[in-house]
Amino acid sequence: MKVINLIPLFVLMFLFSCKETDKERITRIMLEWQGREVQFPSKMTFTKFGLDTVDYHIPQSEYKILLYVDSIGCTSCKLQLAKWKELIVTLDSATGGSVPVLFFFQSNNVREIKYLLKRAGFDLPVCIDSNDELNKLNNFSSDPLFQTFLLDKNNRVKLIGNPIHNLKVRDIYINAITNGDIEIKNPVLTTVDIPTTEIDLGSFSKNETKEVDFIIKNTGNYPLFLKGSTSSCDCTTTKSDRRQVPPKEELKLTIQYKPDQKGDFLRTVSVFVNSVNSPIVLTITGSVR
Predict the structure, then answer these.
(1) 2-33: burial string, b at 16+ Cβ within 10 Å, e else
(2) Using CA atoms, how far apart are residues 190 and 226, in angstroms rounded to an integer?
(3) Could you give the angle at which helices 110-120 and 81-95 cross, rounded to 10 degrees?
């Protein structure tokens, strides 16, 4: 199974919805990483839950996914370990567990990493790279959207992009791994109307969990399919009353927010549907006291 010329097509998908300055930046990053070999430190220590050292060696598999997470910004928001667990289950089902996912966390706050791993029940081996050895060898982009890679058996980059934060990227990863290419059939598109895309939850206690409903109207002539959603923070989850909506009917999407800290907040949820303006970005704001 061979993947050929994936990244140039992958670039076009990103460029389609970006501003001109973003196009130039993304093109530069993609061209810089196309076919590049990722170097791994000679000494790597993998642990479970950041506690118990495990005997783990990077396998010489046909494909592998590498996730590098730096210490800048909200680590929990970037990680979203629960969604990685879901993706790994999907990959294991499709490939018989032959595609490993390598987690490298660059952080001096080992206590935070341990907490996040324990909270998510994430028992896969991870490397807490406190000295940032992996990044020193490879000089990754500072943009977290470009710190995840699909590598071939020689550790050369086939795809770059985060499949957790963008479901279109996830589909391309899965298709590349299972079919050897990124040709994905274009779905029949409908049109939608969203009466409001931003809701203020007001002021509430850190111990409260808030829920708010967004309505997505299918204004087109074809069924509307809800593929899934991604959020800017794992403190935000979504649920819907159905996954398929006939023409002229509505979908109710409920966003649940469980505060992780006090203060003003702004959280976004990207909803992926078969419409021309997908993903739909919904925003909740408020203040936690």
Answers:
(1) ebeebbeebbeebeeeeeeeeeeebbebbeeb
(2) 12
(3) 60
Prediction pTM value = 0.72
Cα separation, 23 vs 169, in Å, equals 17
Give the pLDDT confidence score for residue 256 in this predicted structure: 93
Per-residue confidence (pLDDT) for residue 4, from 0 to 100: 42
Neighbours of 168 (CB within 10 A): 18
Cis-peptide, bond into residue 279, ω within 30° of zero? yes
What number is the average pLDDT over the span 159-164? 88
Angle between helices 167-179 and 81-95 (to 10 degrees): 20
DSSP string, the chain: ----SHHHHHHHHHHTTS-HHHHHHHHHHHHHHTTPBPP--SS--EEETTTEEE-------SEEEEEEE-SSS-HHHHH-HHHHHHHHHHHHHHHTS-S-EEEEE--S-HHHHHHHHHHHT--S-EEE-TT-HHHHHH---SSGGGSEEEEETTSBEEEES-TTT-HHHHHHHHHHHHHSS---PPPPPB-EE-S-SEEEEEEE-TT--EEEEEEEEE-SSS-EEEEEEEESSTTEEEEES-SEE-TT-EEEEEEEE--SSSEEEEEEEEEEESBTTPSEEEEEEEEE-
Stretch 173-192: mean pLDDT:
76
Residue range 222-236: mean pLDDT, rounded: 85
Domain ranges of the chain: 6-179, 192-288
Class of domain 192-288: mainly beta
> What integer best gives the mean pLDDT of the chain?
85
CATH of domain 6-179: 3.40.30.10
d(CA 82, CA 65): 16
